[in-house]
Amino acid sequence: xxxxxxxxxxxxxxxxxxxxxxxxxxxxxxxxxxxxxxxxxxxxxxxxxxxxxxxxxx
Length: 58
Description:
- The chain is 72% helix and 0% strand.
- The longest helix is centred in the N-terminal third of the chain and has 21 residues, at 3-23.
- It has 58 residues and is an all-alpha fold.
């Protein structure tokens, strides 16, 4: 397994774990502030996995 795929996958999993509690009704302010880092992790993780192979990005 490519290192970029592994790193991107871990970033996406951590992003999802941080993202879900902030979307629930009545979430605390801390979880609401965690939405931005979660979105960044999901986006960058997806980018790492999508550009891990040579050629055109998926």
